[in-house]
Amino acid sequence: MKRYFLVSIMLLCIINISCIPYKDTVYLQNKSQATDSLQVIVEQQKPYRVQINDILNIRIKVTDQDNVQIFNPIGIGNLNASGAEQAYFDGFTVDLHGNIRIPELGEMNVLGYTTKEIEVLITNILLEDQFKETANIFVTVKLTGLRYTTYGEIGSGIQTIYQEQVNIFEAIANAGDISDVGDKKDVLIVRQYPEGQKIHHIDLTDVNVMNSPYYYIQPNDMIYVKPLRQKSWGTGTNALQNISSVATILSLVTTSILLFNRL
């Protein structure tokens, strides 16, 4: 009887240790207060500043649109391309020196500028060299989609969202969500800066992540989701799966002992 009791205790310990706790699977938990409701004021995202390898979509409009046809090369790079690939051929890529090359206007340094600042810069150059104010120049500059990379316990690959502002949850949902064995409490964001790359850690299970300066992703971010220890153990994600696994093992052990005793 004592033997069965010890086996039962061991099984319960295995099940308890190998299960993934419920609190580790739930997003946006209120960990700092005892109340059910919590108002979180999301930090305003700072304007994004252009980096190397960004692709800009630049469109120039004037009263006589034929006069700016050369500035708007739509669809001439690759007629068979579509979507993000077409944006690559039609857009203006920021080179290693932070420059873009625009027809007639030549090279222009845009590294560290916001898209609004680039719009003003191009407008001023056109007014100085190409057009008069009566031409009613209207310049728009946008990033050709927000491109980022996901890997680990999440849908892996290069992702693109055609929005100017994307938070971490939208980015994860677009990649297919985090798997059951992904660590939501310590998600890594690798972000590019002029001086190099930095790694930032965020806890998606804490509602205060919405106050984090890394709540909104930026172009060229890399999002890495680490696996939980339960994955390396090869156990189930909940008690029922673990009981099934343990029962299978016990059944094999019992069968082996019975066969051995018969010999």
From TrEMBL:
InterPro entries hit by this protein: Poly_export (IPR049712), Poly_export_N (IPR003715)
Keyword Zinc-finger: no
Keyword terms of this UniProt record: Signal, Sugar transport, Transport
Any one Gene Ontology molecular-function term assigned to this protein's record: polysaccharide transmembrane transporter activity
Pfam family, one: Poly_export
UniProt-recorded name of the protein: Sugar transporter
Span of domain Polysaccharide export protein N-terminal: 43-141
Phylogenetic lineage: Bacteria, Pseudomonadati, Bacteroidota, Flavobacteriia, Flavobacteriales
The UniProt record lists the keyword DNA-binding: no
Gene3D superfamilies assigned to the protein according to its UniProt record, in alphabetical order: Outer membrane lipoprotein wza domain like, wza like domain
